[in-house]
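Good morning C.,

I know you're traveling, so I'll keep this short. The sequence:
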Amino acid sequence: MSDYVSPADRGAKWLDGIVPGWHNHVNPDTLDIANWARCVFGQLRAVGVIEGEIPPPEPTEASDGMDGWRNNGFMCLRSQRQSQDPGGLNSRWRELIYQRRTSTSRL
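The tokens, ready to paste straight into the viewer:
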């Protein structure tokens, strides 16, 4: 069994800790990690769940200051932006949203 954890899994776990119930405010049908308005954070900001500046989930080392976000599935690489599913992130975020909605509806 692999120890690999996808960036989206890391990001979702981080969001669970700072924005409980975040998955209820993201529309998986319009989710697009390459679009600032339709990505996870963009949707959470649009409905007012997240406001202001939030530091990245981990320290950033890249010159653009964004690797803390990319490493946690909130952004894709520039070279992946034209893809329908950049790095598999849209698909994985959708799975995580549905998993959380299903698990919380059983409580």
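Safe travels,
E.
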